[in-house]
Write a structure and sequence with these properties.
The chain is mainly beta and 111 residues long. Helices cover 0% and strands 50% of the residues. The strands form two sheets. Strands 2, 4, 5, 6, 9, 10 and 11 form a seven-stranded mixed sheet that branches. A four-stranded antiparallel sheet has the order 1-3-8-7, with no helix packed on it. Strand 5 and strand 6 form a beta hairpin. It is globular and about 40 Å long. The N and C termini lie far apart (37 Å).
Length: 111
C-alpha cells in the first residue's frame, strides 16, 4: 500500500490548509484511515481518524478546527485545517489501518 500526502506548507496563525492523501490500493474502502502528527523528540499522535463508513474521531486539541473526510471512489482522504495555531506545526502522516503510513508532510504555522 502506498499513501501519497500533499497540501502541506507554511501558513500564518489563523490560516487554513487542506491535506490530501491518496491510496494506491483498490480495496481502500475496507479500511479506517487517519492523520497523525509528530514534532521532533515527541511521539506520533493521532489527529483525526475516519472509519470505512465515515465515523470520525478527533484529538481534543483539534476539535472544532479540523475536519477529516474521505471519498472511497477516489481512494482519498482529506484533512481540512482551519484557525491554525503555531503548536499545530508538525510533520503530518497519513495512516491506514494495519500500520500503513505515508512519508509525512510538513505543516508550519508561523508569522
Amino acid at each position: 500500500v502506498q499513501l501519497a500526502e500533499s497540501g502541506g506548507g507554511l501558513v500564518q496563525p489563523g490560516g487554513s490548509l487542506r491535506l490530501s492523501c491518496v491510496a494506491s490500493e483498490k480495496i481502500f474502502n475496507d479500511y479506517a484511515m487517519g492523520w497523525f502528527r509528530q514534532t521532533p523528540g515527541s511521539s506520533r499522535d493521532l489527529v483525526a481518524r475516519i472509519t470505512n463508513d465515515g465515523y470520525t474521531h478527533y484529538a481534543d486539541s483539534v476539535k472544532g478546527r479540523f475536519t477529516i473526510s474521505r471519498d472511497n471512489a477516489k481512494r482519498t482522504i482529506w484533512l481540512e485545517m482551519t484557525n491554525l495555531h503555531p503548536d499545530d506545526t508538525a510533520v503530518y502522516y497519513c495512516w491506514r489501518a494495519n500500520n500503513h503510513w505515508g512519508q509525512g508532510i510538513q505543516v508550519t504555522v508561523s508569522s
